Each structure stands twice: as structure tokens, then as C-alpha cells.
Structure prediction request, 924 residues.
Amino acid sequence: MPIAEPELRQWVCRVVEGKASRRQFMRIMLGLGLSAPFIANLLTTYTPAAAQGARVAPSAFTPTKRGGGGRLRLLWWQAPTIANVHLSTGTKDNDASRVVHEPLVGFNRDGEFIPVLAEEIPSFDNGGLSRDGTGVSWRLKKGVVWHDGKPFTADDVIFTWEYAVDPATGAVTSGSYQNIKQIDKLDEHTIKVTFVEPTPFWYDAFCGVRGQILPKHLVGEYKGQNSRNSPYNLKPVGTGPYKMVEFKPGDVALYEINPHYHVPNRPFFDMIELKGGGDAASAARAVIQTGEFDYGWNLQVEKDVLERIERQGTRGKVVIFPQANLEHIQLNRTDPWTEVDGERSSLKAPHPFLTDLLVRQAYNVAVDRRIIAEQLYGAAGQPTSNFIDSPTRFQSPNTSWEYSLEQAAQRLDQAGWKRVSDGFRAKDGRRMKLVYQTSVNPVRQKTQAIVKKAFEKIGIEVELKAVNAGVYFSSDPANSDTVSHFYADIQMFSFSPGSPDPQAHLNRFVSWQIAQKANNWSGRNVVRWSNVEYDRLWKQAEGELDPVKRAALIIRMNDLLIEDVVLIPVIWRNGVRAMSHQLQGVELSDWDSDFWALAYWYRET
Amino acid sequence: MHKYLLRRFLITIPTLIGISLVLFTVLAMAPGDPFEELALNPNIPAEVRLNLRQQFGLDDPIPVRYVRWFTSMLRGDWGYSFASRVDVDRLILQRLPTTLFVLGTAYGLALLIALPVGVISAVRPYSLFDQIATTLAFVGHSLPTFFNGLLFILLFSLYLDWLPFIYSTTIEASGIRWVVEHLRQAAMPIAVLGLFEAASLTRFIRASILDVIHQDFVTTARAKGLTERRTVLWHVLRNALIPVITIVALQLPGIFTGAVITEQIFRVPGIGSLLITAIQSTDTPVVMAITFVYAMLVVVFNLVADIIYGFLDPRITYS
Prediction:
């Protein structure tokens, strides 16, 4: 860490007590390479409740009445199929659900906690967080009603936990609720959550995307096996700014204003139309060129196409915001071409050359991240050398990347891989040949081509393979083309932490998560790397309550991955959206749904 | 006649069982599952996916799954969508009106264009009108709908800015304005599909009339002193349309199952787009239901076409 720990602690206290400027503190911390979300977390942990204002989108617009904004048209090129986040199969469903439902706390762009259904953010000082990290008390906002007029109470929050952890429900959010041992209802608007063990990431359950609260009086009987029969899945009822009017799975969701929303004079629009389907490029056109829609989601469009659309269009613009998505190349530590006990890429068969650090280092400097970023991503991504770049409080300052084919060739020579007569490299009669797999996606195929060209220049034979995304990312144990089987030498895809805390993200490389036949390839460590120090750091970080020490542990884990070239980080991808020029007040956050602050969106006329 | 119908009906049962068996096996053997995004999210433990696979019955052997599907289908339960957790028949019924409207209108338009153009072309073969009509029909038939669709969007939406290119089922208007808006958004998909169908139908009608128009009974009709108009409409057309009706009857199942590509381009929420998204997300119960309904309709309309034959052509009898 660039700043001594005790010093930092003192300073935080001064800021919290109001003796030092919060703004200056933020600025200096940013300068030190720490970042806004980290500082926010620090301050939240130490700050008394009174100091926290619900700061949402820095907007000059303060409406004096609710509604009057007409219809807001939103275009998602993947169509929502279910409006209950706990049963969702993807972001599209989480978003459709979030218009109606709300969590206790939302996360803004900087990862700061914004109370939604919570009265205040729990902290040590207000007694919300227990000192040993095993409990958190939530005070719920009073006077909130569900869309059907029933009051929102502690029972709903407790029910949401019971619903999510019941295995028969098949809730995809269960991971966020599993470490809760019990929840005590202290009164109608106060609950005390007790964790199984000390939990630094206490802001997972009931917070952000996966924290959306369900109404007990409507979903109560549809817990467990019954969950699929629930009429609720088509007609959800929440506490959110808009009510569901009509939902056609795979096509459109229509919402109307909630006249009893718990924030005064919000929201602005009378109706919301969330249309789904089609493709990303034409969605960009519908917003930027024809203006049929006000907002277009996740424009994964090739750079040239998107730039042309923006140049031709007059009605809208492309909006970029930081995300935590990493496009990277993984290097298989096991041999995909030898079968041992009925499985390839077995731990018993180490890879013939990817286990050599010199070879991995050679590959690392042979990937031209700059060209890939400039030619294929444009504003949608930048080169990176880290596994974790965001939240930036965990971004390591210790890594760097370079592109040098000379160095790559040198390292390969050094490792004993010499060029033979046909120009490709071989060692002890074995040729250096790679199968390089990824999912079918135009940008990925072009990236493959760039990497292949560079690799072949230094004498590595590369065979490209592209698998349909539905197959590649599936969990089918019988299919050998999946990411987790990794029956190839190197593979490329992207992943992100999915929450402001990277602990779960980092378990992709712990040794007990290695994907193999024994666990039906459900393990997350598909590179099949194991490292004692990494395992130890991960366990330590899991229970470390001090945010500063924890950040240091996480950065060390990142550095281990990079030093040992477990993976080659390529592009740190940004979020890309299209937005009408009139649409204002939109603050996007990668830590939460696009709609985390939908109540504050408005249109300028 | 009744015996014939009964026999035909009984034959359809093993046919449909055979079709369902093949469809189910192919779908069950296809790789992939609906949990792509779950697999990439580190906050969703692997057990969740495995648990869901088990709940959806994806890990059972294929014969067991087939029997389960078949028996519940007989009870009228088509299963539920993995993605929406909603009954499949409900999803299909939700899409049916849109598909029927867009495709029905398109086929109507196709007939309205193809009949007169085909007849006039055939009655005056190699005239200027015929030359133009056959050339256009040839071009229209050769250009695929995805190409025409994009061309229409480029011209009418992006360049001229006349028509919306995203189909909406939740139009915010009422009365006349609702009708106008509805027609505006349906214009392009209907035109693309209608013109494509019209092109092939025109060629078919023209050929069919040319077959008939040189036969002796037509000459006799002319010799009787009938007007050209009455000869064509009464004697030629009635005979020439028999094969055309078969073609149209066999295309009718397509109206129910939608036009996959056109619906995708214009975001028409019909059954075709339901099918394609279900395929993409490996939502097997939905794919199975739509393809099987299609198979049933094809079988049924085959029978209908055969029966219509009997009414149109007294020479055909069923025994």
C-alpha cells in the first residue's frame, strides 16, 4: 500500500468527525492510487449515519411533482423473459425486475452505498455492524407500501432470504444468502442478520441487483417447488418507482408510474416501455438515428459500426461508463490432448510446455493489447495488465504490460524451443502447436486473428476454434466444448466480479475449485493452477474485516496471478449504452442494474 | 369418404409420434443449456446451476425425458419454459395474434398481387407486361427476406425516416391513431413477406394457367362465342387453380409458426422470434412445442388440401 496504515486510520477518523475535508481526503486518496469506491467503503464503515445523504445522480433537476414525463422507451436487444431477479437467467431479467423491485441498498458508480429501502447504512458507529463481523442490523424505511397498498415490513425481508435459500425454489441468487445463519425480527422495521462466520462482504444479501426484496403476502405460497407456477412471475409487485402493467416474456414489459412511491416527487415518467429482441447494432440505430427509443442497452457492436452510427445520427449519443469486465486469455496448466482415467486436461497430466514460466512469459509479451484495443474496441475498452482493475480500490499498481516479439522469441529460445525447418518451434521432437478457443463473436474472432498472426511470427503454430456461446458457457458435463472442460491449450473470454467485492471472483484460481471430472467440471478454476500462497491469501481475505488490510491481500493475489502468467489480461472493457440527447439524470453503475436510480431519470424538453 | 377420413386420421397418429420422437431426440442431444450467464457470474455458485439442471430434468436419460414429455403432453401440459418459468402454451398463445396478423396479411397481400398479375401474364404471354412481371417475380423470388428487410429499413426508416422499424405491441394511442400507427409499423414486415410470397406465387399461377389455356375445352369455350373474360375467369381459372390451392394450403401452417428471419429483423414478437430466442437460449420445451405444433399443422393441412381437391375436381373420389 502506498500509505501507512495507522496514518490512514487517523485521517479517516478526522474526516468522519468533520475535522478534515471529505473532498480533499477523496482527492488525495485518488491521487495515491486508491479509489473512490474504496474510500467510500472506508468512510461508510467509520461514518455515523447522520453524515450520509442519499446522493444519487448529481442532478440540477428538482421536480415539484411526480410524473408528467410521458413515456420512456427502453430497448434491450436481449429480451427479458422473467421479471423476478431470483429466478433470472441473465442481466436482461435482472433489469426488468429492478424496475419493479428494490433492494435495501443500491450501489452508485463509485460503489458508494445509497439507501433505498434501508433507513440508513449500517456502520460500526450507528451500531449496525457488529465489531466481530458476524452480524448486521438493518433499519428499514418506514411508510413504504407495495404496489398493492400493503405495508413493507421486516417480514418481507426475512421472507426474501427464506425464498432464495430454499433449494427447491431454484433461486440463482442463493449464493448471496447462504452464509446467513439466522435473521431476528426486532420490530416491524428492524432486523438483525447473523452470519455463519465473520463476513467483510456484509453488503451482499439484500443489496444491489441480487438484493431485490419480494412481497411475502404475494409470493409466500410460491416458495420452493411451487415457484414456477407463480402468477407472480408474470405480474410482479414491488416497491419500486414503476408498477408492472403488462409483461410478455421475450418481447416487452410495460410499466406505469407508482403514485405512492416512497421518494417525494419521483419518478418523472408516466409509462415505461422495455422492449426486447433483435440485435445490438440496430438497437443503436433506433436510439441514435431514428429516435424511436430513448435508451439502448449494452451495445456490443464493432467499433467501426458504432462510430459510423454515431456520426450519422442526430437524435442520440453513445455513452461510455466504467465496468469491471476483463477480456483475457487463459493458459491451460494441464494437457488437453492426453486422456487419463476418462478425462482430458486431467491434473495427472501436466501440460507439456505451458507449465514452463518462460513459455508463458513469451506468450504474455506476444499479445499486442494496444492494437486490439485501438482497432477492435475503441472507446469500449482499454489495454490492461491486471486481473482486477475495478473497483479501483483493488487495482494493483505493481503490474505492467508490453508487446515485444523479440523478447518473446528470446524467451522461447531460452526455454529450449528452437525453430525447425518449417519455421515453427520444436523441442525434443515435439512441435509447439496451440489450439486457441473462444466463443463465436466477431470481435473475438478478430482478436484471435491478431494474436495468431503474432504467434506465428515467432514460430508458434496456432489453430483457431470458435464455439457457439450457448454451448461454450453451458454447464453441461457431457459436452467437452465448454469453458470449464477447457479441452484446448489456450482460451479467451471475459468475466467480471459481478459485485463490488471481488472475493468470489478471486476464487476462480483457488486449488479446491479446480474443474475436473470428479466435480462434473463445476469448479471455477478452469486453468487448473494451484498455488499454496494464493490459497492462503484467499482464505485470509475472506475473514479480514479491516478494509485496508483486505485490499492489500487482494492486490497481492492479483500480482501472483500476473507474475506467474496464469492468465493474460487483454482488455478492460467499458459499458456502452445509447441514449437520447433529451434523456437526463442517468447515472450508470457497474455494481448494480442500469435501473438502480431509474426514479431519478428525466427528460429535458 | 368417412372411411377414407378415418383411415387418414389413424395414419397421422404414428406419423406424429415418429416426428415427436425424432424432434425430441435431436433437441435432447443438442449441446448447451440455458445457464450461460450464470456460469460466468462468480457470485452464483456452481451448485445453483447443477441444482437447476436437475430440477429441469436435464440430467435424466433421454428415453425417460421423452416419456415424461409425451405423457404430460397427452394431458395437455406442454411443459414450462426454462427461461420464463411460465407454461409454454401460454407463451405461444401470447405470440399467436401478432404472427397471425402479420403473416395472414402478408399472404393475403401476396394473393391479391399474384392472382391478377399471374393471370394477365399468362393470358398475354411475352407481352411487355408479362416480360416486366416475370422479371420482377424472378428478382423478388431470388432476393432473400433478410436482404429485402434490411434494404427497406435503410430506405424507409434511416434514409427517408417514414416508418418505424421496431414493431411494438404496446402502442400508445387509441382509435384511428392506433390503427394508423399499427399499420405504419406493420407495413415493412408485411411488405417484405408479402412481396416475397407474391413473387413465387405469380410464377406458379402463370405456369399453371399456361398449362390449361391451350387445352381443347378452352378452344371450345371460345368457339361457343364466350367472351374472353368469361372464358378465362370461368373455364381456365377454375381448372388452373387446383394445384395453386394445394400450394397455398400447404403454406398455411407457416402462418401459425411465423417467419423467423423477418420477425427477428423487425422485432415482431411472433412465434418465429419466440422460436429463435428459445433455440439460442436452449429453452428446449419451447422449441419442442413450436416445432411439434408445426408438424401437426403440416399433417392436418395436407389432409385438408386432399379433401379440398375432391370438392374442386369431381374426377377425384375417395373410397
Q: What stands out?
A: Residues 89-312 of chain B form a domain with the MetI-like fold fold (CATH 1.10.3720.10). Chain B touches chain A through 56 residues (CB under 8 Å). Chain B has two domains: 2-74, 89-312.
